[in-house]
Design goal:
Largest sheet: 6 strands, parallel
Number of helices: 13
Bound molecules: iron/sulfur cluster
Helix content: 25-40%
CATH architecture of the largest domain: 3-Layer(aba) Sandwich
Shape: globular
Radius of gyration: 22 Å
Distance between the termini: 25 Å
CATH topology of the largest domain: Rossmann fold
CATH class of the largest domain: Alpha Beta
Strand order of the largest sheet: 2-1-3-4-5-6
Length: about 450
């Protein structure tokens, strides 16, 4: 058992968990490989948030069943939220292909679990209220950006969401451990930190809250930008808004999930805020941090969502004018409270509502981006554009994607640009400063 292929599905928390697993495996003398064909073991780090995500993994397992015909000793494992969600049901259901099921709190022992799975089908699905992996160093993918998980689990129990069941109860890492992780990431050459948590702003280690963590990170040399995702509106404190406004390295962008523009639906979702409260928050945020970009998540077709509720979502999105939004059809997930509620919106109607909402948001996002034309921006260059060596790409402080001519400026550089054109997704720009020959930092990883 030497070579492991790790494939990640789902959210950024899973990407960070895969980096954690990669660190655990490498410290145990195992090597990560790029293809299943080169591997002794494959691990799928999975997502359970929507049925579609689970179906993709089931399809992938079918491919590994085929690979096992020519590699009968191949160990196949499923990790992450789907493993926890389906628990021991998964092993017998997929017994021809699956050897290991490991939930999000079982990664510390992954090398031993893999060895055990070589002899007997193995499941490690206990949730551990204390496990934070705070002492384990992840093996980060190269790039400008380091993901740092500050908190695991969730106590919010939104009625549509499996996360509290798959990732367990909320617990925060000690701030001292996190600052040590940030300093180490800086020493490795990463210049942007993204803090991760299911409700990242409810972070509290007993002595320090999330505002304290941002202020402390702002002082770490070598780190030029700080971001975080995703905050919960109910935990967005004045202390946090003040820290964002006052810390120069904390970027003026917030992804603040709304989910619905109807108070009745928000209540049925157990989102714990009203539209009026969310809107007041948005106003305070925009007053404290002028030009902040605000993005959101919305769900259409939640059980009970009437035409009027949907229209309320559409109307609020026109009023709030989010810079962009991730828009989803409601997907009923076993184990959740909403799963027990009869669906009232047909798949066809969910699809129609989603299309209408996407069209409206495209229009608003396009108008936001058009307003950037002629303005100057600071871009953190991330590298050469995929498929076009004549272009560089990077992000503005507001997390807008920018494309600029490749003048040899290396990834990790901050570049002044003027925006010359825009689409819904991308800003096009010309450089205002001379080409840099050295990055501010070396590229981490
Ligand atoms: S806040 Fe709600 S949607 Fe987010 S992870 Fe927790 S339960 Fe799920």
């Amino acid at each position: 058992m030497k070579r492991v292929f790790l494939e990640t599905y789902g959210c950024q928390m899973n990407v960070a968990d895969s980096e954690l697993m990669a660190g655990v495996l490498e410290r145990a003398g195992m090597e990560l490989v790029d293809t299943p064909a080169d591997a002794d073991a494959v691990i799928l780090n999975t997502c359970a948030i929507r049925e579609h995500a689970e179906l993709r993994v089931i399809g992938r397992l079918g491919e590994f069943a085929h690979l096992k015909l020519s590699k009968p000793d191949l160990i196949v494992g499923v990790a992450g939220c789907m493993a926890q969600h389906l628990r021991s049901k998964l092993l017998p259901k997929k017994k021809r292909v699956l050897d290991l099921v490991v939930g999000p709190d079982g990664y510390r022992d992954l090398p031993n679990l893999l060895r055990q799975a070589a002899n007997v089908p193995t499941a490690e699905i206990r949730l551990d209220r204390d496990e934070t992996y705070g002492d384990l160093e992840p093996k980060r993918a190269p790039g400008v950006r380091a993901w740092v998980t500050v908190q695991r689990g969730c106590d919010k129990f939104c009625t549509y969401c499996v996360v509290p069941y798959t990732r367990g109860r909320e617990r925060s890492l000690p701030m001292a451990d996190l600052i040590r992780q940030v300093e180490h990431a800086s020493e490795q050459g990463f210049c942007e930190i993204v803090f991760l948590g299911q409700t990242v702003n409810s972070y509290h280690d007993g002595d320090h809250d999330f505002a304290d963590l941002l202020r402390a990170t702002n002082e770490v040399p070598g780190i030029v930008r700080i971001r975080y995702t995703s905050p919960h509106p109910s935990d967005l404190s004045e202390r946090l808004i003040a820290a964002m406004a006052e810390c120069e390295k904390v970027m003026p962008h917030m992804h603040l999930p709304l989910q619905s523009g109807s108070d009745a639906v928000l209540s049925a979702m157990n989102r714990t805020y009203s539209i009026a409260e969310y809107d007041a928050l948005l106003s305070r945020l925009r007053a404290a941090i002028p030009h902040i970009a605000v993005t959101t998540d919305m769900i259409v077709g939640f059980p009970g969502e009437s035409d009027a509720d949907f229209e309320a979502s559409m109307a609020y999105m026109r009023q709030a004018r989010f810079d962009s939004a991730f828009l989803f059809k409601y997907s009923a997930r076993p184990d959740t409270r909403a799963y027990k509620t009869a669906e009232t919106v047909s798949e066809e109607e969910k699809g129609r509502r989603l299309t209408v909402m996407i069209d409206q948001q495209h229009q608003i996002s396009g108008e936001h981006n058009d307003a950037w034309v002629g303005r100057e921006a600071e871009v953190l260059i991330e590298g050469i554009s995929h498929g076009d060596e004549s272009q560089l790409h990077g992000k503005t402080r507001e997390f807008k994607t920018v494309v600029v001519a490749n003048d040899g400026t290396p990834a990790g550089s901050l570049k002044r640009v003027r925006v010359t054109g825009a689409t819904t997704m991308t800003l096009f720009a010309e450089a205002l400063d001379a080409p840099r020959r050295e990055a501010l930092v070396t590229i981490g990883g």
